[in-house]
UniProtKB/TrEMBL annotation:
Pfam families cross-referenced by the UniProt entry: ABC2_membrane_4
Source taxon at top rank: Bacteria
Transmembrane segments annotated in the record for this chain: 18-38, 50-70, 101-122, 137-159, 166-189, 218-240
Name the UniProt record assigns to this protein: ABC-2 family transporter protein
Keyword Membrane: yes
Keywords noted in UniProt: Membrane, Transmembrane, Transmembrane helix
Amino acid sequence: MTGRAVANEFAKMRRLRVVPVAVAMVLGVVALSCQGLTGPDFAEHPWRSLLASMSLAVSLLSPVLLAVLASRPVDIEHRGNGWLLSQTSGLSPGELCRAKCAATGAVVVGATLLQSGLVGALGELAGTTAAFPVRQWLGYTAAIVIINLVLFALHLLLAARLSNQLVGLGLGVLGLFLTVTGSVLPAWLAHFLPPWGYYALVSPVEYRGENMVWLTPAYPSTLALGIAGGAVFLLLTRLFDRQEA
């Protein structure tokens, strides 16, 4: 993968509606997270309430919208025989996949950071007087960046191997079900639903009865997920090159 290949992928985004999908994800998460700004839970536990709402919003929207984001840069290669054209210019299918992951993955990271920042900013604008939970907020944001990237890479691989992009979208819908399921499973069992079950594992707050309490998120497991996901992505994209040789 070269810097030129990544730059080309950024140039392609102008016509692939990647940014509008990312903006929709940001606005959706912000809207769902902040709808309870005037509710009693927010008045009593403002930051915990916002983190709980954002955790729910991210888990509901990310599985499907990340599937859409992954399909956009790949579908054009299937339609225009771009895999062969890139290979004739010296860029193998695996290298092209890695370039797409780097370029569109940067959009995923930017969208994830932006939605977290906007929710926090709106919490401040709402007149919150409680101290901002820097450690919990940043920890959750970093964990979601890792999970979103792993899930995006998974969908990118699937989209690259299957020309029918409806399969990836179907997996996105199934992923939504798995994410919701992971939120009601014991933590040890949610670990067996990677990466969807990890959205629940990194939630920093939880309702226990009528009280909202801080949790200790599964950060080590999430870091391990990111490392394993990156290694598997590199391995599979290298296998793409061997299969085409």
